[in-house]
Specification:
The structure holds 2 protein chains of 2 kinds. By secondary structure, chain A is an all-beta fold. Chain A has no helices and 12 strands. The termini of chain B are far apart. Chain B is built from 1 helix and 11 strands. Chain B has one helix at 103-106; strands spanning 4-7, 10-13, 19-25, 32-38, 44-51, 57-58, 67-73, 76-81, 90-96, 109-110, 114-118. Chain B is mostly beta strands.
Chain lengths: 115, 119
């Protein structure tokens, strides 16, 4: 079975700073997908960024980028120029390939951006 | 973009009664939907996978008779909490894939959740 671990329950940074959220996972699969989802106070889950395991290039979406280390089974999220609207719970998630597979979520990191 | 509509957004019911939560895909067809439960400040716990036209697949430890799932059409899945008790109070969320086969690229779209309070 796959497991996802987020070792930082809470983080807090000042606006405009850069912050990195950690995520490690365990799997015996060779190909899979990894995601970061954001859950703001509204509790609506929002996809932030995704990574395919067979792609070595790290994914980037505007201010959000990942550091994907397949051998180390690590998938960290970097938020640059953080904004107040980035305040949210962030969940790292793993998904096997092959159709409608379920997401396996980490415990989450509560990120607070201070003005 | 793809939208998953979930209703009601919040509900209060008396202990012993049943509550139905609806999850609709508004602009796409969803053969598979997922139901999650989330406790305050915790992660999402998958309860079951809902498949259109067939029985749902429940995760280990989830009571099938308490959490009834019906996926009668390609755009609607329902979760019924039967004989609800205070310990069933929680936040329930559904999700679906807007692009079947494209889950790895597009991820899943989530409903806005339902806060259930049993008194």
């Amino acid at each position: 079975a796959q497991t996802v671990t987020q070792s930082q329950p809470e983080m807090s940074v000042q606006e405009a700073e850069t912050v990195t959220l950690s995520c490690t996972y365990d799997t015996s699969e060779s190909n899979y997908y990894l995601f970061w989802y954001k859950q703001p106070p509204s509790r609506q889950m929002i996809l932030v960024i995704r990574q395919e395991a067979y792609k070595q290039q790290n994914a980037t979406e505007n201010r959000f980028s990942v550091n994907f280390q397949k051998a180390a089974k690590s998938f960290s999220l970097k938020i640059s120029d953080s904004q107040l609207g980035d305040t949210a719970m962030y969940f790292c998630a793993f998904m096997k390939t092959g159709g409608a597979q379920k997401l396996v979520f980490g415990q989450g990191t509560r990120l607070t951006i201070n003005p | 973009g793809a939208v998953v509509s979930q209703h009601p957004s919040w509900v209060i019911c008396k202990s012993g009664t049943s509550v139905k939560i609806e999850c609709r895909s508004l602009d796409f067809q969803a053969t598979t939907m997922f139901w999650y439960r989330q406790f305050p400040k915790q992660s999402l716990m998958l309860m079951a996978t809902s498949n259109e036209g067939s029985k749902a697949t429940y995760e280990q430890g989830v009571e099938k008779d308490k959490f009834l799932i019906n996926h009668a059409s390609l755009t609607l899945s329902t979760l019924t909490v039967t004989s609800a008790h205070p310990e069933d109070s929680s936040f329930y969320i559904c999700s679906a894939s807007p692009v079947p086969g494209g889950e790895g690229y597009y991820g899943y779209t989530f409903g806005s959740g339902t806060r259930l309070t049993v008194v």
